[in-house]
Design goal:
The chain is 7% helix and 44% strand. By secondary structure, the chain is mainly beta. Among the domains are: 119 residues, no CATH class; 261 residues, Neuraminidase, CATH 2.120.10.
Length: 660
Amino acid sequence: MKRCPECRRDYHDDSLLYCLDDGVALVEGPTSPDEAATAILSKPVAGEGLSSDPSGTISLTGAAAGAKKKDAADHDPEAILRRPGRFDPRSFGWGAILFLVIGAASFGVWYFNVRGPVAAARNIRFPLVIPDGAVPYADVETHSLSISPDGRYIAFIATVKGQRTIWIRPLDSLDAHSLSGSENAQSIFWSPDSNNIAFFADGKLKRIEASGKSLQTICNLPAAGDASGSWGSRGVIVFFDDADSKIYSVPAAGGSPAVVAEKETGRYVRFLPDGNRFLFVGNHESTETAGIYAGSLDSNETKQIAKMAPARPHYINGYLIYPKDGTLVAQPFDQKTLALSGEPTVLVERLPYFDKTGWAEFSASESGPLVYMTEFPKTRLVWLDRKGSETSQVGSPGNYVKVRLSPDGQRVAMSVEDPRTLSGDIWIEDLAHGTSTVFVSGQADDDQPVWSPDGGQVAYFSCCVDKTTVHIKEIGSVGNPRIPQLKDQDFAVPMDWSPDGRSVIYDWDGLWILPLADGAEPYQFIKNVHMDSGARFSPDGKWVAFASDETGRDEIYVSKLDQPGEKRRISADGGSNPRWSRNGRELFYLSPDSNLMSAEIKPGIDLNTAQPTPLFKVDPLMTSYDVRADGQAFLCVVSAPGTQLFPYAVTMDWTAEIKK
């Protein structure tokens, strides 16, 4: 069951429910054409689940028509249409009901034509269905969902067979299409006229027509980090590059970027209507400096306009829309004085929100429609054999992110997210006794646990409280972790611990080796000409396997530890998340088409590998796994039953919530 906040009613997952301002349910229940539920509308209202025939009659299609049928008892049309205090179909008669339906449809024709589509669609909410085979992309450093200013098109980023591109879904259509030329896109945002989409890919800022006809590179990113931006009414784009924490401006027609703000962390920059001033999230590492800031193209000076927890700002139609404690709210905002007033109104009662940076996935249009992510997928931890069959589950379903087996195979270190804030803690699971204990917990976001070879310590990534970098803590310790001194390397993320225990390999603008001996300096192993990630030492410590996107998508490579300049490609058609078997005779990885692959390693002075072969199909959400010592089983993070892949929803008029 789910709950509709507008009319405060429960409804089944396979039911379709649309509500008006007064909370009256227009359509609820099974959506098969031969069943009783009928849409009391007359023209196609933009949205998934609705389509029209030439006569202008609404029908239920797409995800709505494809909902799973249950037993007849579950979909008794009389029970569905009965409402306490209204009428009972058994006494009223189906002929009379049909008469009322036709009459209401006729009224809908008049209302839609006279009042316009937004008024007719007021407060209607529906799910945005993602095309089959596409996996939506989500990253708390960027934004992957954007609705055009005119409210006609939704752009989102999704991956199909390992290729990440921009997809466009017109609100008056059930079909979405991918934009060729948008490969590796992240952080999408529209031009003010709704004709073009800007995005970041391969270290560049690009623009593409919504039709897909024209692609242009606007500029190279100065620091080539994760970026986000906004396109202003004066034909200028501002963007934030997290690799150097500066905000830049550049002409949308192309040119060289110029720094416009650098004193504060400037995530999620958003232009105001004048095309000169912009809002952004300020420094989140201090309660005094955290909040929403304003800057302008005319000056490098910035101003804190609201002291609050980090929250991605979105100004539109006199309101500032932003996430607040896991809800999405709108609050009156004077764009001239840059001042908030009144009390915030809740638009969405729950959506994923990362409290460390203020990230939330949503986008609102000037004409009324708003699109947002409804929840992060729930996951569980399971053992799979070499055929992909589940042999057992570890613990209960939760929000597992990363897992690592201890060297003796008796314990598993795992990062677990808070479903409300998305901040992570590190837990240790005792596999023999089936018990879990928290290892690292608190205000920080802790992730990426890595065992020392003796099982006595865990290295992990910790964000946003003390030092955002590699932390190392002993098992059983109640003291503070050790923080290696990495000069000017914030957001250094540990990948693996060498088998001899002497060093940790980590990711920071490339792959680096951190010697653990006192006084030793870290050194770069692989330069970040391309995005390299997922590094793992071979069991003998002589090789490093990692993923790199130098071909335009992730592939698996292996390099000698003492000869990092030379590398050998292992995967043939894309790959990520490499893992070695404990005997070093096999290298596993995930393929773009969701297969767990195996490449046999042939003994010798040089690394010789056989052609990789698929072992089994995996869950699209299986981005973390580890290999049992005998190589015959895999501990995997998979989606929990009934979980959707980053589900999106649309409300046709967000202002209706304010007018209630």
